[in-house]
Amino acid sequence: MTHTSGFTYSWLQRPVGDAIGKTDVMSLFTTGTPDDFVGIPLAFESGTRFRYSGATALLGNVVEHIAQQPLDVFFQQHIFQPLSMTRTGFVIDKADLPAYVAPLVALDVQKDANDTASFTDVMHNWRHGNTASEQYLVKCRGLDKGVSKAVKGDSGLFSTPHDWHKLSVMLMRKGIGECGTRVLEEPIIERMLAASTGPLDSLPFNTHLADLPNTGGPLLIPPRRGVAHSLCGLVTTTNDNFMGASAGSFGWEGIYTTKYWIDPVEELVILYFSNVSPCWRWDLHGRVGPLVYDAITTRRTPDIGRSSSL
């Protein structure tokens, strides 16, 4: 969960011949079963570096083994049902499908209006170092039917802004949902949200800073001041950070630009939903987040020479 295991993702691009790049295995992204992890050489000694990876898929397998039930059933019983997240799951009921926005992928090559694309198409574009200039959006092949290819710990969950807000409020209130139901004990939440890594602002610890320029790694996890990784995503370790957020604020994002940020001190939840992949096309945390904090009466945002234009 800290992404210091030594695993990686095949869509995080490294220079040709790079040692870390040689450990990239596509199966960790497509299936992520325990067998996929067996025998894969680690990109580095566990605990010594940070690299976003499919290790959370393996964690899902661990949960299934301990709970002795499928991951989707575990989620429903222990998270979704207690929080009344009735429209969240790995499969959308066909009757509800018209109410959902079909996931889209952004390409720099125009396609026919009826064409679809896959996430691998996005990877191909970003291998060539494209920045956020893509302007052609097409439906994601398969996911537009509302059914995930697999139940995994790292991807495939469908939800709605309303449901995700319920989850966010529970995290902000340290385990207690909107209806007063306690889903997680407070000590567990505190452990989840505590910084579990060192700072992510420099090499060699943040290995993404040596990925190819303008690709997923350095755009997803750039060298930002005052940020580490927790068991729940990025977390600010000081008030002097890139967003102007309170120390202890946290958040993460999904590949289709479903981002969240939670500030327990300000009792603030920020949610973004564009449903377009890849999520690093726009730095919403870095550009929209400070605008939100600027609007708070007690301004905390440092002057970092940012542009407020979107």
Overall description:
This protein has 310 residues and is of the alpha+beta class. 24% of the residues lie in helices and 12% in strands. It has ten helices and nine strands. The chain has a five-stranded antiparallel beta sheet. A hairpin with a 2-residue loop joins strand 4 and strand 5. The chain starts with 26 loop residues before the first helix and ends in a 16-residue tail after the last helix.
How does the SSE layout of this entry go?
Elements: H1 27-30, H2 34-37, H3 55-67, H4 71-80, E1 104-107, E2 116-117, H5 119-127, E3 136-140, H6 161-172, H7 186-193, H8 216-220, E4 227-230, E5 233-236, E6 250-254, E7 258-263, E8 268-273, E9 276-277, H9 284-287, H10 289-294
Parallel strand pairs: 1-9, 2-3
Antiparallel strand pairs: 1-3, 4-5, 5-6, 6-7, 7-8
Give a concise summary:
This protein is of the alpha+beta class and 310 residues long.
Order of helical and strand elements: HHHHEEHEHHHEEEEEEHH
Kindly report the average pLDDT value: 84
Major sheet details: 5 strands, antiparallel
Q: Kindly report the spatial arrangement of strands forming the biggest sheet.
A: 4-5-6-7-8
The shape is globular
Q: What fraction, in percent, of the residue positions are helical?
A: 10-25%
Q: Measured on Cα atoms, how large is the radius of gyration?
A: 19 Å
What is the count of helical runs?
10
Strand content: 5-15%
Number of strands: 9
Oligomerization state: single chain
Low-pLDDT windows of residues: 303-310
Amino-to-carboxy terminus distance: 32 Å
SS-based class? alpha+beta
